[in-house]
Amino acid sequence: MAAETTFKAGLEDVVANTSEICFVDGKEGRLIYQGYDIHDLVNGGASFEEVIFLLWHGKLPSKSELETFTKAIATQRELPEAVLNFLRSVPKDANAMEVLRTAVSDLGLYDPDNGDESLEANIRKATRLVAQLPTIVTSFERIRQGLEPIQPDASLSSAASFFYQLRGEKPSEFVERAFNIALILHADHELNASTFSARVTAGTLSDMYSAITSAVGTLKGPLHGGANEQVMKMLLEIDDESKAQQWIADALANKRKIMGFGHRVYRTEDPRATHLRKLSKEAGELAGQTKWFNMSQTIEAYVKDSKGLNANVDFYSASMYYAMGIPTHLFTPIFAISRISGWSAHVLEQYRNNRLIRPRAEYVGKVDQKYIPVNER
Ligand SMILES: CC(=O)SCCNC(=O)CCNC(=O)[C@H](O)C(C)(C)COP(=O)(O)OP(=O)(O)OC[C@H]1O[C@@H](n2cnc3c(N)ncnc32)[C@H](O)[C@@H]1OP(=O)(O)O
Ligand SMILES: O=C([O-])CC(=O)C(=O)O
Question: What's the complex ipTM?
Fold first, then answer.
């Protein structure tokens, strides 16, 4: 059938909506949240909470606005008992992203604002999601290890709270600072696949929890957020820096993709990788475990040289999280506990300026088939 518009595989470079939230400059390698360069946010010492406020409201919070917002997150981390019971009922070897996806959906059933679609109610829902996603991830991790979930401590930042809820101990100053930066760097990225998925769901005027459930399912895939876990699996499989180059050469010869490299939009260095490379090195040195960073550098140089591909956000986050002692299967859920900020910003924007998202497919199937009743076939 004649196409009415031009088909672009994977919607490459197709502009699907306007947005004020985030600008990805693929040519120059810049990432801007609401007009602020991520380098300035990171180097200026912004908190993750401050960046969430910025993404949602389009302006930096005043001191008192930030205090109120940080408190709203910190005091709402506890999960409803029913959701904790759900986590206790899940198979212990379940995939952590599948558990997160199902638990987010479950959580929506208990939200006190369920059914209220006002802007204020949706901001309250988004605040609870930001507060409670880390509790889902850390509680399930403890439950699967036969441990009890930890009561959240409202005096802790989002970055510190993640480690406290996971291990019952506050992280070092370095780990809190580096993790806060990682949360900022992963917060938003324009119309990436999971955010698009959230916007498609919100575009039908479905609710916030449905949109976020769609997004979590989309983030899980190894071509998107799931790549950070695959990077670590690759490093562990190679295990020896002296074997890294040959391993990558063989993988490329077999037409395999090297996880943590390449990007749909960036044609130069992913600006997030610039920070994560540095933090991975520091985290490795502090943990007395420089092997994974060194191996990552060898791989990066070889992939750049042989394929011209740059490391993306998922490459150095893997060795950084590993050096912080975080289990590999939590890397993608950690991506989600940051990206919930961007997903919800986009859902709010979609509601503000909604039109159903419904593209076309170019029909390439059969035509003019003649129906023959079943008894005559
Ligand atoms: C948070 C994020 O989502 S960041 C991305 C995380 N994903 C990954 O790291 C997975 C590995 N990377 C990839 O699969 C891709 O680069 C993607 C999915 C990120 C982008 O994909 P696309 O824009 O569709 O590019 P596509 O897959 O068509 O690649 C274009 C060419 O580069 C090659 N290429 C792209 N990425 C890689 C890679 N990581 N390793 C090897 N070759 C690659 C492809 O094989 C293809 O080569 P060809 O033209 O000779 O067939
Ligand atoms: O923008 C993309 O396609 C993927 C990405 O880097 C992200 O979601 O952070």
Answer: 0.99
* Whether 224 is catalytic: yes
**8 A C-beta contact, residue 365 and residue 150:** no
pTM listed for this prediction: 0.97
Sole residue written with tokens 């939230």: 21
Structure tokens at 307: 């394929």
pLDDT, tens only, 73-112: 999 999 999 999 999 999 999 999 999 999 999 999 999 9
Which candidate, 56, 40, 45, 315, places its Cα nearest to that of 157?
45
Neighbours of 169 (CB within 10 A): 9
pLDDT of residue 6: 86
Mutational pocket test of ligand 2: of 55, 184, 220, 224, the residue with most ligand atoms within 8 Å of the beta carbon: 224
Residues 6+ apart with CB under 8 A from 108: 114, 207, 208, 209, 210, 213
Evaluate if residue 278 carries a pLDDT over 90. yes
Contacts of 204 (CB under 8 A, 6+ apart): 356
**Does the C-beta of 313 come closer than 6 Å to ligand 2?**
yes
**Domain annotation for the chain: domains and CATH numbers:** 227-323 (1.10.230.10)
Q: For residue 152, what are its two tokens?
A: 């959240």
**From 186, 263, 275, 346, the catalytic residue:** 263
Q: Atom of ligand 1 at shortest distance to CA of 261?
A: 39
263 is catalytic: yes
